[in-house]
Design goal:
Strands 8-9-7-11-13-14-15 form a seven-stranded parallel sheet, with helices on both faces. Strands 1, 6, 10 and 12 form a four-stranded mixed sheet that branches. Strands 3-4-2-5 form a four-stranded antiparallel sheet. The chain is α/β, with parallel strands linked by helices. Helix content is about 20%, strand content about 20%. The chain has 14 helices and 27 strands. About 55% of the residues are buried.
Length: about 675
C-alpha cells in the first residue's frame, strides 16, 4: 500500500490513508490476510473477449476462469483499465499468487497490490533543538509566514520565488491539477468550488475497500475526507498495515490542495502557487494508507483514461500530484500507468519520501515521474527527506531547526487543514505550533509551478516541462550552513551489513542526490512563457551495487540520463573530482558505463558530463560512500547458525521501519 506523506502535529505524526468506491459487487473489503494482486492480461488473452456484462461481473468471471487454470479460488476486484484488475485469494500469500499468475501465457504482468502511505516527517535530531525564539503569545504563525513562496533572502535560500511567476500568469483555469490524496474538506474558507466561482472541481473517491474508505461505501463521486484516524483496535485488527499508524486524522489532502490551489487575493488565509488553475481532488488514501490498485486507478481516471465501472473524468488533469508512497522498486503496474499518463500528455509529480535519507520511494522512483526531494530553508537537504539519482529537483519541505522544546517552529510549511481529531471539525491553518513539514509539501510546490508553466505554454510535453524545471533550478549551496555538527555532502543511499538502510540526515545536496537544483518558480514560468527551448539532455548517475564495498569493482552508469524526443546522447565523460584517498582513477571514462575499484572505506566524488547530437550538454555530480569489506569469519567445524538474516526476517523489519516512517511523514 502507498501512504500520503502525512503532517506533523506536536512532534511528528504521520498517517496513511486509503479508500475507494465501487459498485456493490466490488465494494466488499477483503480480509487483511487475503492475497491481493494486480493482474494485466495481454491484448490477445481469451479472457478479454467481449461480453454483455457489467464491469464487476466481467472482472468476477475473468478471475474465476483464471483461478480454474491455476487451481485457486480467485475473486475479482476493481478494474484499473480494460485489461487490468485486482484479484483476491485466500490461503496463499500475495507474492506467491503474483508469481503464479505471472507464469500464465496470456498474463502481461502480475504484481502485489501493496498499500502505500502518505508522506510525513519523522523525528529527526534537529527538529526540537537550538536556541528559542521570543514567545508569540499563542498559536499564531508560522513566525516566518509563507517564507517558501517568497524570493530567497538572507539565510533563507530555498524559497521558490513565486511572485515573478504570478506576474507572468496567475494560472489558467483550463489547466487542471489532480491531487491524489486523502480527499478534501470542501468547506474550508480558503477553498471555493467551481460552481461557486472558484477553482475546486468535484473530483472522485477511488477507494474500493469500505474499511479503508471509512465513509461506509466504496468508489463514488464524493472525494470528501471523512478522516483517517486509526485506533489501537484498528491496529490490532490489521497489524500488517496499521500497527504504526495509531493517531488522529491527518487531513493530508486538504493540506496539499491548499498549497496548490487555495483561493488567493481574497483577504484571508494563505496564498497558493497555482492560484487560478483548477484542482481535481481524487481520494485514494484512507485509514492506514492506500492500495496500489486504487492509486493507479485514480491516476488513470484523473488523466481522462478509462477505468472500468467508473464514469469518464470530464476534466482531465495535465498535472498529477502524489504526496504518497513507500519503499521498494517501481513495479510493472506503475511503469505501465505512468507511461500511459505521459502519453496522454499528463505530468506526474511525486514526493521522494520521508524516511531520513533512504532510497526514493514508489512511485517517485518510477520512470517518467518528476520526483521531488525536500530542503531546509537554508538549502541543505532536510533530515527526513529521502534522496538518490531518481530525484528531478528539490523544493522546500519545512523544518523546525534552531528552536527549543515548546517554542514556535521557525520554518514550517503553512497550509489549510482541519481541527478534527477524528471526524471533521473547524477549518484551520497549520502554523508554528500545529506544524506541517515533509516532502509531501515539496511536491505540491513543484506541481503548482508546473501548472503555471502549462498556463503560459500549454504545448509543453511532460519531458520538456521536466527539463525546463531542471534547467532553471538554482544551484544548491555547498557551504555556509551553520549548525552544531558538521554538515557533510549527501551520498547515494547506503545500507549496513544486514541490508538495512542507513539514515542520512541534513547534508549538502549534489545533482546526483537531490536533482538538478532548487526549484525557481519565477525562472521556470519565464522560460516556459518565452518559448525557451527545453535543454536536450539531463545527466543522471546510477551506481551498482548500491552499497559499495572496499576492494569491490563499482559500476558508474549514465544509461538513465534523459534526452529530449528526437535527440540522442553522443558523448559521455566521467571525471574524478575527489578520490578521497580510496579511488585513484576511472576505467572507461568516455563510455556510458565506467568503473572504479575503491581500495578502502571512505568517500569519493565523481562528475558525469553528457552531450546530445545538437550540442546541448548537462552534468551531474555524485559523492559515493564506500563501506569496509565485511570481515571473513573464522572457520569452525562445529555448530551452525549465523550468517545473513533470512529474507523474510529482513522484509519484516523493513516493513516495520517503513510503516513508522510513512506514518511520520505527515506531508511529503
Amino acid at each position: 500500500m502507498r501512504h500520503p506523506l502525512p503532517t506533523l502535529a506536536a512532534l511528528c505524526l504521520l498517517l496513511a490513508p486509503l479508500a475507494l468506491r465501487t459498485p456493490p459487487v466490488q465494494a466488499a473489503a477483503a480480509s487483511p490476510d487475503s492475497a491481493r494482486v494486480i493482474v494485466q492480461f495481454k491484448a490477445d488473452s481469451p479472457l478479454l473477449r467481449e461480453q454483455a456484462l457489467t464491469a464487476g461481473a466481467r472482472h468476477a468471471e475473468r478471475a474465476q476462469a483464471l483461478g480454474q487454470r491455476v487451481g485457486l479460488a480467485l475473486r475479482g476486484g476493481a478494474g484499473l483499465s480494460e485489461r487490468s484488475q485486482v484479484v483476491f485469494a485466500s490461503g496463499i500469500g500475495s507474492a506467491a499468487l503474483a508469481a503464479t499468475l505471472a507464469r500464465q501465457g496470456d498474463v502481461e504482468y502480475a504484481v502485489v497490490d501493496q498499500r502505500r502511505q502518505r508522506a510525513t516527517a519523522p523525528n529527526d535530531p534537529y527538529y526540537l533543538q537550538g536556541p528559542p525564539i521570543p514567545p508569540t503569545g499563542g498559536t499564531g504563525g508560522p513566525v516566518a509566514g509563507q517564507w517558501y513562496l517568497r524570493a530567497p533572502a538572507g539565510a533563507v535560500l530555498s524559497s521558490i520565488d513565486a511572485e515573478p511567476a504570478w506576474s507572468i500568469t496567475p494560472g489558467n483555469p483550463a489547466i487542471v491539477v489532480a491531487v491524489l490524496d486523502t480527499g478534501v474538506r470542501f468547506a474550508h474558507p480558503d477553498f471555493k468550488t467551481v460552481s461557486a466561482g472558484g477553482n475546486l472541481l468535484p473530483g472522485y473517491d477511488m477507494i474500493n475497500d469500505v474499511t479503508v474508505a471509512n465513509d461506509t461505501d466504496g468508489r463514488d463521486a464524493d472525494p470528501s475526507d471523512p478522516g483517517d484516524w486509526v485506533t489501537q483496535a484498528d491496529a490490532d485488527s490489521d497489524p500488517t498495515n496499521c500497527k504504526d499508524s495509531v493517531g488522529p486524522s491527518s487531513w493530508h489532502g486538504t493540506q496539499t490542495i491548499g498549497l496548490i490551489g487555495a483561493v488567493t487575493d481574497n483577504g484571508i488565509g494563505i496564498a497558493s502557487v497555482g492560484r487560478n488553475v483548477r484542482i481535481l481532488p481524487v481520494r485514494v488514501l484512507g485509514k492506514c494508507g492506500g492500495f496500489d490498485s486504487d492509486i493507479i486507478a485514480g491516476m488513470r481516471w484523473a488523466a481522462g483514461l478509462n477505468v472500468p465501472g467508473v464514469p469518464t473524468n470530464a476534466n482531465p488533469a495535465r498535472v498529477l500530484n502524489l504526496s504518497l508512497g513507500s519503499e521498494g522498486a517501481c513495479n510493472a503496474a506503475y511503469v505501465d500507468a505512468v507511461a500511459a499518463l505521459n502519453a496522454a500528455n499528463a505530468v506526474v509529480v511525486a514526493s521522494a519520501g520521508n524516511s531520513a535519507g533512504h532510497a526514493v520511494s514508489v512511485p517517485a522512483n518510477c520512470p517518467g515521474v518528476i520526483a521531488v526531494a525536500g530542503l531546509r530553508h537554508a538549502g541543505s537537504k532536510v533530515g527526513f527527506s529521502d534522496l538518490g539519482p531518481e530525484i528531478s529537483l528539490s523544493a522546500p519541505a519545512g523544518n523546525c531547526v534552531n528552536i527549543g522544546a515548546g517554542d514556535a517552529c521557525l520554518y514550517p510549511i503553512m497550509s489549510t487543514s482541519n481541527a478534527g481529531a477524528t471526524t471533521p471539525a473547524a477549518s484551520i491553518y497549520t502554523d508554528s505550533f500545529n506544524v506541517s513539514v515533509g516532502t509531501s509539501f515539496s511536491a505540491p510546490l513543484v506541481a503548482g509551478t508546473a501548472a503555471l508553466m502549462l498556463s503560459a505554454q500549454p504545448g509543453l510535453t511532460p519531458l520538456q516541462l521536466k527539463l525546463l524545471l531542471q534547467a532553471t533550478a538554482r544551484p544548491f549551496p555547498v557551504s555556509g550552513v551553520i549548525d552544531t555538527t558538521p554538515v557533510l555532502e549527501c551520498t547515494a543511499p547506503q545500507y549496513d551489513s544486514n541490508a538495512q538502510a542507513i539514515d542520512q540526515l541534513q547534508c549538502y545536496c549534489s545533482t546526483g542526490t537531490c536533482g538538478a537544483g532548487m526549484l525557481d518558480a519565477g525562472a521556470a514560468v519565464l522560460a516556459a512563457s518565452s518559448g525557451t527551448p527545453a535543454p536536450g539532455v539531463q545527466a543522471r548517475i546510477d551506481i551498482a551495487p548500491v552499497t559499495p564495498l572496499a576492494g569491490q569493482a563499482l559500476s558508474l552508469r549514465a544509461s538513465n540520463s534523459s534526452v529530449a524526443s528526437g535527440r540522442s546522447i553522443t558523448s559521455y565523460q566521467w571525471a574524478l573530482l575527489d578520490g578521497g584517498g580510496v579511488v585513484g582513477g576511472i576505467a572507461s571514462p568516455g563510455s556510458a558505463v565506467a568503473s572504479v575499484t575503491p581500495t578502502a572505506a571512505g568517500r569519493f566524488t565523481v562528475r558525469l558530463s553528457v552531450q546530445d547530437n545538437t550540442g546541448a550538454s548537462s552534468s551531474a555530480r555524485l559523492s559515493v560512500a564506500v563501506a569496509a569489506a565485511p570481515a571473513t569469519p573464522p572457520s569452525s567445524s562445529g555448530g551452525g547458525g549465523g550468517g545473513a538474516g533470512s529474507p523474510l526476517a529482513l522484509l519484516g523489519l523493513g516493513a516495520a521501519v517503513l510503516g513508522l516512517a510513512w506514518r511520520r511523514r505527515g506531508k511529503r
